[in-house]
Amino acid sequence: MKIIFDQKNLFCLPWTQTILGTHLKGKVNFMALDWLTRVNFKPAMLGICVNKIHASNEAICDTGEFSVNLPSSDMVEITDYAGLVSGKRTDKSDLFEVYYGELKSAPLINECPLSIECKVVQTVDLPTNSFFIAEIINIYTEDKYLTDGKPDIKKINPFLLTMPDNRYWSIGDCLGNAWSAGKKIKEEKK
Ligand SMILES: Cc1cc2nc3c(=O)[nH]c(=O)nc-3n(C[C@H](O)[C@H](O)[C@H](O)COP(=O)(O)O)c2cc1C
């Protein structure tokens, strides 16, 4: 029997853990970010949801640029720290080694296996958050994270967040191939 999980202000889907990189008044800033999704196929676009009280929100509104960085499982503590303190009061600019791609205000994290630089194309103003829709300018990784030219999740070793228990999880086993695992059922239903 289904029950209604009535705490609708809490969230129960698992999220990929990332770190948002911005320039706050000319200084590098980072925050833990989970609310993100792919929103357009071509050109490739990402949507991220940032609370208006965060320094990162102000930074993105000012520059129109940001980075999304995928940390590996050995970066849980530093990623969590980036989500505990605000750039309004604490300097987080030296948390990571930074490099830049094409954009001047989208600091990319050297320690992260995969980083995406983004340029905002549209901002949706919501009651507590801004939903920034941004075009993906470039994605950066290293050969050691690829297998057959594609990002390898085992090598990248990212982690997930579950809410409302607020816990981090590593990735488990591969369960099958997407757009393929359902083919047997498709054949049977013909
Ligand atoms: C695991 C985790 C995930 C978070 N995800 C988000 C998020 O997706 N959107 C958001 O607005 N805040 C999120 N936060 C909160 C911000 O990371 C946090 O308030 C941070 O201190 C804001 O920093 P800033 O003021 O320097 O921008 C998250 C925090 C943690 C710990």
State the major sheet. 7 strands, antiparallel
**What proportion strand?**
35-45%
Distinct ligands: flavin mononucleotide
Q: Provide the succession of SSEs.
A: EEEEEHEHEEEEEEHEEH
Strand order of the largest sheet: 3-2-6-9-10-5-4
Q: State the end-to-end CA separation.
A: 32 Å
> What oligomeric state best describes the polypeptide chains here?
single chain
The total count of strands amounts to: 14
Please state the average pLDDT score.
96
Report helical residue fraction: 10-25%
Question: Runs with pLDDT <50, length 5+?
Answer: none
CATH class descriptor = Mainly Beta
- Domain count: the total is 1
Q: What would CATH call the homologous superfamily? A: Electron Transport, Fmn-binding Protein, Chain A
Please state the overall shape, judged from the principal axes of the Cα atoms. Answer: globular
Instruction: Just name the CATH architecture.
Output: Roll
Count helical runs.
4
> How large is the radius of gyration?
18 Å
* Category by helix and strand content: mainly beta
Instruction: Find the CATH topology.
Output: Pnp Oxidase, Chain A
Description:
The protein has 190 residues and is mainly beta. It has a single domain, classed as Pnp Oxidase, Chain A (Roll), CATH 2.30.110.10. It is 14% helix and 39% strand. It has helices spanning 55-63, 76-82, 153-156, 183-189; strands at residues 15-16, 18-24, 27-33, 36-40, 45-51, 65-70, 98-99, 108-109, 114-125, 129-140, 146-147, 150-151, 159-162, 167-170. It has a 7-stranded antiparallel β-sheet. A 3-stranded antiparallel β-sheet has the order 1-13-14, with no helix packed on it. The longest helix has 9 residues, at 55-63. It binds flavin mononucleotide. Flavin mononucleotide binds next to strand 3, strand 5 and helix 1.
